[in-house]
Fold Transcriptional regulator.
Amino acid sequence: MKQRITLKEISKKLNVSISTVSKALSDSPEISDKTKEVIKAFAKEHNYKPNNIALSLKNQKTKNIGIIVPEIVHHFFSSIINGVERYATEKGYNVVVCLSDESFEKEVITAQMLANGSIDGFILSLAKETQEKQDFHHLNEVINQGMPIVMVDRVTDHVDSDKVIIDDTQGAFNAVNYLIEKGAKNIGLITMPDYLSVGRLRTQGYTAALENAGLPVNPDHILKLEALNGGQDEIKEFIEANNFDAVFGVTEYFAVTAMKVAQKLGMRIPEDFSVIGFTDGIISQCASPTLTTVSQHGEDIGRQAATMLINRLENEDKHIPYNTHILKTTLIHRESTK
Amino acid sequence: MKQRITLKEISKKLNVSISTVSKALSDSPEISDKTKEVIKAFAKEHNYKPNNIALSLKNQKTKNIGIIVPEIVHHFFSSIINGVERYATEKGYNVVVCLSDESFEKEVITAQMLANGSIDGFILSLAKETQEKQDFHHLNEVINQGMPIVMVDRVTDHVDSDKVIIDDTQGAFNAVNYLIEKGAKNIGLITMPDYLSVGRLRTQGYTAALENAGLPVNPDHILKLEALNGGQDEIKEFIEANNFDAVFGVTEYFAVTAMKVAQKLGMRIPEDFSVIGFTDGIISQCASPTLTTVSQHGEDIGRQAATMLINRLENEDKHIPYNTHILKTTLIHRESTK
């Protein structure tokens, strides 16, 4: 049987980006006519076909929905998947899960694969790289083709769709405010780069809580880490260099690492040093002492997203305006705070 | 647009099991002619179609592969998925992940959905309920239709396919043997029911290690838990009732729970009480003290399964005999043992 060429292979052979191939094949005005001609001719010659389904079947419902998440070995995203699964199953839908692995290229390929008929619509949380590039053409294309998308947690204003987010700023504000109420005066923040919406918003919440309490905001007290896992050495240096009485980490991993470092430096938790994390996952529950953390209710996010998607699929004839649903976070008190 | 009826809806309307509907529609000899006639007529009347794809497309390669896992909020399974993903991406394949949620019914529906053209083959770890029921018709059907399957970790002799398993018996033997070498004389086992292959095999490894050392095997020293999470009360009772100097838990959750119970009872770990778990996940690494555990190398399992599946897909013309690949486990020494 003749193998079909894939988007990735075309990109490699012609030495252009996946994004360019994808845009050219969908006739995007961003790509020059000459480039489009070359790419289209090459694709035709090599038997390129969008995956999965004859166009004639395109209007048939599959009762499958998709979800694309950046990673899977991560309690928050796997909880979202569980929430989607449970609601979809109740409603008689199957769910297929795909990973972007934080890669823009994989997100483009996966969105295209899903959009080509094997599912009716999908839920997506943006890859880190996509947020960095700010290139969302692949999602807008899917929506223009009539397939609904619901974005969750990592979203963008550049895509017009239903969205489910948590109140990151408020969640971070509440956490830092709680540390201040319990007497902390010198609070460090371990966060992510600003191009990640969750990093930016949680940093804003931290800053707002300090300002609200009349405490100074010192840029040296904010550590921005690129890698989501790792960074032990930076965290150690950060804590050694500052005389913190508390640290707020915007992931549970950052928070637990800070706690371990502080323990090794001989500080008692929570007497000398309090710690709050973000995401109420297994790490927070198993840490010793157990970690006070901002719970994002991942399963609720997933359930809400599936509800919005399936509602839209089952009411295609009605015009439903796009909606952004904001879920509140909860601060779970455990042993790492006073 | 007219909604198509699903397998599940047919099952509900006719008040027969999903399995019966699925068998009837694929003309299984297990189902009476009369029942088959009723189910087929009903399915036809209600516009039932296998999902996703016109039969004419069935022989086209999609360069997508699937993986069905019992659950996703679980380090071992998400590591397997990562291993599959990484190898598949290297080879230019997309991966779709589906959950059976430990349910036989969901496994049947999902296998059928995947087999109907959206992917070229899939990797599967059996649901708890499927192992209990010992009903594998849905997998044998998929294989008979010419779609390759690779089974991982939770496998069965009743399906003829490629398999990737770990040496559960040897892994358990090594763990218990290590406890004995370090002086333990009275070792408890917290395991799963025998119908789960991993429960049965790890129990065999435990028994073999005791016998090998000339220690008695006491059935009261073996606790079999149905629920994979939970069982705190049973574990507490089990440890209080016996004078163990060590416990081997066949999941990391069981092991960490045993450790917490022992700590609350005032025992020092590892001086008074040693613990070993199975699965080197985040729980083992974050526990305090950190947990000595049998690492299953989930990512290697996934990579091996993807290698076997893609190799078979790309050599369809060759006759490759089915192969069972057994991966060795490693005992990771941490603070919960001497």
Residues 51-58 of chain A have pLDDT under 50 and may be disordered. Chain A has three domains: 1-50, 52-165+300-325, 168-296. Chain A touches chain B through 51 residues (CB under 8 Å). Residues 168-296 of chain A form a domain with the Rossmann fold fold (CATH 3.40.50.2300).
